[in-house]
C-alpha cells in the first residue's frame, strides 16, 4: 500500500513497491495525461511535478515517493486550462501530434516557476523532453510568451 498526495488529494493505492509512479497515476488513479514514451526517463512524455520539480514518472518507483510530497499532473496544473503555459501552447498552436506535449507543458511550467524570464540558453538547458515532430521552435516561443515576452514561432 502506498499513500500519495496527487493534485491536492491523498490517495491510498495498492501497488507493488517497484511499480513506476506513471502506472499508478494512469491505471489506478485514472490520470492519463502523463504518457508512456520510452520507459527509461529519457523522452519526458511522463513528466509530472513532485514538490514543484519536474520528474519523469516512468522510472520512479512508487515507493520512492514520500506521502508528504506533492505530486501534480497535467490534470492538476490547471483544471480549466488557464495556466499561462497552457494558454501560450494554445495561442501558438505548439503541438503537432501532441503525444509529448503534456510532458513538455509540465517541464515548461516548472522552468518558469524556477526562472520567470528564461533565455534561449536556459530553455535549451532545461527543456530536455523529446518531440518526434520537432516543434521545438514553437515550444521556445510559447515559453517566452508564457513568461510575458510575446513569443512568436520561428517561420520556416
Q: How would you describe the overall organization of this protein?
A:
InterPro entries: 2Fe-2S-bd, 2Fe-2S-bd_dom_sf, 2Fe-2S_ferredoxin-like_sf, 2Fe-2S_ferredoxin-type, 2Fe2S_fd_BS, Beta-grasp_dom_sf, Diverse_Oxidoreductases. Keywords: 2Fe-2S, Iron, Iron-sulfur, Metal-binding, Oxidoreductase. Residues 1-77 form the 2Fe-2S ferredoxin-type domain. Pfam families: Fer2, Fer2_2. With 156 residues, the chain is of the alpha+beta class. It folds into two domains: 2-76, Roll (Ubiquitin-like (UB roll)), CATH 3.10.20.30; 84-146, [2Fe-2S]-binding domain (DNA polymerase, domain 1), CATH 1.10.150.120. It is 33% helix and 13% strand. It has a five-stranded mixed sheet, sandwiched between helices. Strand 1 and strand 2 (9-13) form a beta hairpin. Helix 3 crosses helix 6 (136-146). It is globular, with a radius of gyration of 15 Å. The termini are far apart.
Could you provide a short overview of the structure?
Helices cover 33% and strands 13% of the residues. With 156 residues, the chain is of the alpha+beta class. The mean pLDDT is 94.
Amino acid at each position: 500500500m502506498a499513500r500519495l498526495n496527487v493534485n491536492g488529494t491523498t490517495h491510498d493505492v495498492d501497488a507493488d513497491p517497484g511499480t513506476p509512479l506513471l502506472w499508478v497515476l494512469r491505471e489506478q488513479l485514472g490520470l492519463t495525461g502523463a504518457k508512456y514514451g520510452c520507459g527509461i526517463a529519457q523522452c519526458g512524455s511522463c513528466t509530472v511535478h513532485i514538490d514543484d520539480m519536474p520528474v519523469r514518472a516512468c522510472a520512479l518507483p512508487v515507493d520512492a515517493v514520500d506521502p508528504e510530497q506533492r505530486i501534480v499532473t497535467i490534470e492538476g496544473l490547471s483544471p480549466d486550462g488557464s495556466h499561462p503555459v497552457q494558454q501560450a501552447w494554445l495561442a501558438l498552436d505548439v503541438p503537432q501530434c501532441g503525444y509529448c506535449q503534456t510532458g513538455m507543458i509540465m517541464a515548461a511550467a516548472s522552468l518558469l516557476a524556477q526562472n520567470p524570464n528564461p533565455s534561449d540558453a536556459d530553455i535549451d538547458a532545461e527543456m530536455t523532453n523529446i518531440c518526434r515532430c520537432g516543434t521545438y521552435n514553437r515550444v521556445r516561443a510559447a515559453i517566452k510568451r508564457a513568461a510575458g515576452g510575446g513569443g512568436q514561432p520561428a517561420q520556416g
